[in-house]
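Propose amino acids for all 264 sites.
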């Protein structure tokens, strides 16, 4: 997907993905945010329909309000206007593991049909992989303990795979009630947002099912971008298009970020 037109506005598949993901955040929630696409969507939500959501980052910032998107969890931009900055152990022990985080917002390199995530290695074995990824960070704990998890990533056969090379963060394990048997307090992934559409777990099997298509996307293209036999909801919906304000706020945020990085 390249560009789609909404009235007088043209938007990209990536913009649609970020806007669709931002809409999943409700006002007033405590959201533990990952760097990259999740941070973009979460800050868009805070700047539009959910100004009261509290963004937490792994480095210890609570109520972060960055003017530009952070390069990493250690970016000083996160602390600049945060409500509070605490230690990393406090973020995990007092906030996350104690059940005070409503939503975990994560990205991934790979995901399987049960919402398990790989951000560690691809190909070969662990010691000598073809690709070594950034690693786990706090994602395994977020996936285990947040009350629900939102995942964002671009959909392709390399990202949506039948079998993960490495399970970094557990979604629904092997499906069904297998996650419950592991004893994780959080409910697991509630939604996966891609540049093609929206997937949610089947209530019984927990297999990710395509429930919504973004404008311009097709079921056939979504299936081709998936490494397993993708299930399609009977009542498949179409994502409503970006509003002018959503597009403008998102583009302003990205322009400020680009300008700040060039200046730095």
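Proposal:
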């Amino acid at each position: 997907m390249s560009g789609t037109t909404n009235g007088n506005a043209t938007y990209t598949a990536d913009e649609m993905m970020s806007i669709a993901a931002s809409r999943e955040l409700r006002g007033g929630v405590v959201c533990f945010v990952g760097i990259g696409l999740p941070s973009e969507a979460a800050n868009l939500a805070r700047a539009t329909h959910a100004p009261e959501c509290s963004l937490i980052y792994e480095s210890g910032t609570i109520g972060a309000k960055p003017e530009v998107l952070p390069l990493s969890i250690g970016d000083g931009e996160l602390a600049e206007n945060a409500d509070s900055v605490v230690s990393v152990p406090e973020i995990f022990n007092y906030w996350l593991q104690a059940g005070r985080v409503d939503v975990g917002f994560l990205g991934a390199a790979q995901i399987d049909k049960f919402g398990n995530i790989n951000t560690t290695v691809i190909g070969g074995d662990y010691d000598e992989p073809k690709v070594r990824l950034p690693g786990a960070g706090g994602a395994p704990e977020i996936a285990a303990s947040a009350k629900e998890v939102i995942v964002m990533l671009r959909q392709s056969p390399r990202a949506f795979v039948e079998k993960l090379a490495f399970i970094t963060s557990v979604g629904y394990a092997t499906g069904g009630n297998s996650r419950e048997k592991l004893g994780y307090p959080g409910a697991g992934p509630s939604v996966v947002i891609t540049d093609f559409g929206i997937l949610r777990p089947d209530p019984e099997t927990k297999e990710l099912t395509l429930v919504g298509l973004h404008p311009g996307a097709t079921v056939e293209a979504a299936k081709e971008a998936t490494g397993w036999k993708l299930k399609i909801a009977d009542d498949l919906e179409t994502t409503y298009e970006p509003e002018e304000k959503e597009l403008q706020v998102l583009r302003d945020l990205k322009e400020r970020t680009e300008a700040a990085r060039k200046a730095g």
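The mean pLDDT is 95. The first strand starts at residue 3 and ends at 6.
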